[in-house]
Amino acid sequence: TRSNSSIPQDANCFLLEVRAEDEGTPSLSSSVPVNIAIVRSGSPPVFENMEMTGSLEENAPVGNTVFSVKVTEDSLPVAFGTPAGMDYRSNKDKTFVILTNSNDAKEGIVSVGSESVVDYEKLSPFDNFKFLISATNSDGTSLMTVTVNIEDVNDNVPTFDDEE
Question: Residue 150 half-sphere exposure, CB side, CA atoms within 13 Å?
């Protein structure tokens, strides 16, 4: 049971009885109950920037890096992701993914993740992807808005209109 109302309900609590006994004759002893509460005192991850914008040429191959984002040192350990159902626009097919940098655990790398080609002409009337990425640790989740502008390249052969 919790005898101290300042201990949060989600704390792990342990109740111990500590006993001290002397070597005298007669031997005397005394005991006291000790409550130990392990309380989480951290906070959700903190992004160094709350928004990020990058550019990418259309037709970029899968795995091509767009940019990286970082969380503060005290956010570790952290897992990065793109939350399902929270896209502002167009990342439903996971055109972009975010993975933790294997050399820097506080950095997430946003890259082309889909087998589908990023085609500028098919994005009309928009020329970008705007979506959320998340960083999660044992204390919660933080969200960041990401915009990836797609740059047009000369990849379409000119065509002639049929004249009547």
Answer: 25
Whole-number Å distance between alpha carbons of 122 and 89? 14
Contacts of range 98-101, beta carbons closer than 8 Å, 24 or more positions apart: 98/69, 98/133, 101/68
C-alpha triplet 113, 118, 120: angle, nearest 5°: 155
Confidence of residue 160 (pLDDT cuts 50, 70, 90): confident
> Would you say residue 2 has pLDDT above 50?
no
Kindly report the pTM of this predicted structure: 0.66
CB 54 within 8 A of CB 64: no
Q: How far apart are CA 26 and CA 36, in angstroms?
A: 32
CA separation for the pair 83, 40 (Å, rounded): 25
**Side-chain-side CA neighbours of residue 56 (13 Å):** 28
The side-by-side arrangement of strands in the sheet containing 104-112 is 65-70, 104-112, 96-101
| CA 15 – CA 35 distance, rounded (Å) | 5
CB 92 within 8 A of CB 114: no
Q: Which two tokens stand for residue 102?
A: 């294997």
Longest dimension (CA), the chain: 121
